[in-house]
């Protein structure tokens, strides 16, 4: 399942047993690749020529030209949607501004101090939640500017732990 954003519109696109559904309505598509980044599409007795202009797989952004009109698409797959539902969707940037608690819990350990340089994925905080230790990693690169909690603090979900 994908959520596809086109301008101000959002569509749910599913591929179930080889059948495409858009917003739970079946859409018959015949797609033929005609060039390196070009496709011919038949749908509902309409013919479309689609050319992929740019593709950013990390940000899931696609710019296409369909019958001469340029369109920007952004995609969210089921994992992106789950992260958004859990409030963890803001961690994809390579440059961090702040780190928030992904869940309520108890701060067991802080592995950085103010002024430390961190890279994406570096362990910075150990949070105990539901009797499990969770190592919280830096969402991006940056310098630790402020630590908003201390060892032994109880924190709520989305509470800021560290500012970069």
Task: Please give a structural write-up.
By secondary structure, this protein is mainly beta. The chain has two domains: 2-79, Lipocalin (Beta Barrel); 92-163, Beta Barrel (OB fold (Dihydrolipoamide Acetyltransferase, E2P)). The chain is 5% helix and 55% strand. It has one helix at residues 78-85; strands at residues 2-6, 9-16, 19-22, 25-27, 30-33, 38-43, 46-56, 61-66, 69-77, 98-100, 105-110, 117-118, 123-129, 132-137, 142-143, 146-147, 154-155, 160-163. The strands form four sheets. It has a nine-stranded antiparallel sheet with strand order 4-3-2-1-9-8-7-6-5. A four-stranded antiparallel sheet has the order 14-13-11-17, with no helix packed on it. A hairpin with a 4-residue loop joins β5 (30-33) and β6. The radius of gyration is 22 Å and the shape is elongated. The mean pLDDT is 89.
Short description:
This protein folds into two domains: 2-79, Lipocalin; 92-163, OB fold (Dihydrolipoamide Acetyltransferase, E2P). The chain contains one helix and 18 strands. It has one helix at residues 78-85, and strands spanning 2-6, 9-16, 19-22, 25-27, 30-33, 38-43, 46-56, 61-66, 69-77, 98-100, 105-110, 117-118, 123-129, 132-137, 142-143, 146-147, 154-155, 160-163.
